[in-house]
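#help-structures
NK: newbie question, is this the right format to request a structure? protein is Serine acetyltransferase
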Amino acid sequence: MRHWWRSVREDIQTILHNDPAARSIFEVLLYPGFQAVQIHRLTHWLWNQKLPFIPRLLSQLTRFLTGIEIHPGATIGRRLFIDHGMGIVVGETAVIGDDVVMYQGVTLGGTGKEIGKRHPTIGNHVVIGVGAKVLGAITIGEGARIGGGAVVVKPVPAYSTAIGVPARVVATRDPQTGQTNRVEMLPDPEGAMLRSLHESVQSLNQRVIELESAMGSQAYHIAALSAQRTPGDDPFDCLEDLQSYEMHYADGI
């Protein structure tokens, strides 16, 4: 009983610490994440007493009331913080460490291929973003961060950040200094498009300069031919010179 009361107090303090919207203990008692965790502690104890039906019934009622489905067989550590919580699913053989934060829509599920241990193990101080899916009997290392919407099917090292579908590690973090080191640059389609446009504009500017230079030379040559003519010259001679220059100009372009 004393252990249970200590867990309740820790869970309340965790929510008050992590959620600025929680202003009092009475508000925390209304949080679906808090309710789901407390009921799970009871159903997990019953599950370990080899009473499968009652804990399953309670977990389904909890799912109906809170939108959070935690299998009674799942192992949850201390101070789990479920923010909002709607749509969270935690499988039977999942293991969640201490001080883990999970947001709505998270799934700790299986791939349908394993037997026995088939759900992930989440280390201490892990943050799992909105809608992330962690699938299979993999391990998410201590202090790791899973980006929103990621689909994780491979282990994630400690103090790493994984994003994408399928998830890949893009950064690591020094637990002592908190300094983040990029492992992979994030894709930047807008930046790539702007660079391409910039290169195209530069190419067009260079082409305009070349055309203006060529047209200036042509105008100068025409003026020179006109100045060289005398009243007695055959006008067709000047025309032939002009046609010869235009052919040379076209070859140059």
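mod (FA): yep, format's fine, and the tokens are attached above. The longest helix spans residues 189-228.
NK: thank you!
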